[in-house]
Structure formats: structure tokens, C-alpha cells
């Protein structure tokens, strides 16, 4: 295990790979292939990477997906009958490492690898495609419950990376909101308005999440005002 989460080697890079999920025949870009050499990274992600549904995958706000290799052990414990299939790359990630996870990576963190500069801007949202990828029910629920979703980078500086390059943290935008803490706030049964407002203000957070959190805070406050007004009129 690396001694510091500031400098972590990239174990593997994955890209490309549209395939068919299950009997329903859904096309998906979750089927990545391991890249042994250098890859070019631009604003849209790794050159040659593919996404079947560009409405919810890919683009500058989800340019590069990073998933912690350690998470596969947790998933294998929960689903031992598919443990052999739970290997780096099988979740459709672009970057695999050991030593960075959802507790040590924060929203807004900036990293350099090779000649590329990346910024963490949001977690991946687990969906049904994970279940279909492994032909099991409940895998996406375990991912959500354990908050082991991986995270997306935006590309601040295009360039090239290769396996073995050191992923070096250059800057930390906030000391509070790790990926895990992000999910703690967003998924809370009783929403804490102050927490959501603080999260929405974090530099580097994806614009879509800023909007969603801001709208949710406004909705909760309006509901509370309406409830108080109703109480006063009774």
C-alpha cells in the first residue's frame, strides 16, 4: 500500500469497448479494454473511449472515470459467486489504482499524471447497468450503500498518460467533502440544508450537482416556510 495518497501510481488504464448488456440487448460502454501504452486525454476524455448513451455518460463533466481497485474486494465479499468477474476494468473505469478511495479523494482535488491535469468534480452514480454487467441483482445497491462509486475527473490540461505514471495531487479545494462525505450529505434521510449549501459551494463541483443541490435547498426552505405559515394560520 502506498504511504501517501498524494502520489499514487496508475496501475491500469482502460478505454473503448461498447458491448451488449443482457438479453434485453442494451448497448453500453462499460466493456473497457486494458491499454498497455500511452493514451491521449482531451477535454472529452481518453481518445478512443466510447459511450453508448452520451446523455448520461462521457463529456467534459464525466471525462475520465477512476475506480479504486480495493473496492472489488468489498464487492466480492457481498457477491462471492461473481467474484472472479469483479476485476479492475470491469466497472467501466478508465483509471485503476491502489491507495486512493472515496474517503481520501475530495471534490475539487486536482491531480497531475504524465502531462495531464485532472480535477475531481463528482462521483459516479451507480445504476442498473452494473447489475446487468454481472447478471446479479443488488450489486448497484451495495455500491451505493458502501459509497464506493468511484469518481469523475474533468480535464484541466490535455496531454498523455500511461500505466505506471504517478498520479500526484497538486491541490485540495476543500478539507471536508470527500466522495464518501458527498454521498453522506446527498443521501441523508433527513436532509441538512446547511450541509447541502456548503457542498454546493465547493469549488470544482460539477455544475449539474450545484444546480440540483441549490434547487433542493430552495425547495426545502420553501416547504418549511409554507409549513410555518400554515401553523400560524391555524
General description of the model:
The chain is an alpha+beta fold. The chain is built from 6 helices and 14 strands. Helix 1 links the parallel strand 8 and strand 9. Helix 5 runs antiparallel to helix 6. The longest helix has 27 residues.
Question: Which key features would you list for this structure?
Answer:
234 residues; alpha+beta; M1 Pyruvate Kinase, Domain 3; nine-stranded mixed beta sheet; three-stranded antiparallel beta sheet; 6 helices; 14 strands; globular
What layout of secondary structure does this protein have?
Elements: E1 7-9, E2 12-15, E3 19-21, E4 26-28, E5 33-35, E6 39-42, E7 45-46, E8 64-68, H1 71-78, E9 95-97, E10 110-113, E11 116-123, H2 128-134, H3 139-146, E12 151-157, E13 159-161, E14 166-171, H4 179-186, H5 193-200, H6 207-233
Parallel strand pairs: 8-9
Antiparallel strand pairs: 1-14, 2-5, 2-9, 3-4, 6-7, 6-13, 8-12, 10-11, 10-14, 11-12
Helix pairs in contact: 5-6
CATH superfamily: PK beta-barrel domain-like
Mean pLDDT, rounded to whole units?
91
Number of helices: 6
Class by alpha and beta content: alpha+beta
Strand order of the largest sheet: 1-14-10-11-12-8-9-2-5
Largest sheet data: 9 strands, mixed
Radius of gyration: 19 Å
Top-tier CATH class: Mainly Beta
Beta-strand residue fraction: 15-25%
What characteristic shape results from the CA principal axes? globular
User: What is the tally of beta strands?
Assistant: 14
* Total individual domains: 1
- Unreliable stretches (pLDDT < 50, length at least 5) are none
Q: How far apart, in Å, are the first and last alpha carbons? A: 62 Å
CATH architecture: Beta Barrel
Give the helix level as a range of percent.
Answer: 25-40%
Could you state the order of secondary-structure elements as H and E? Answer: EEEEEEEEHEEEHHEEEHHH
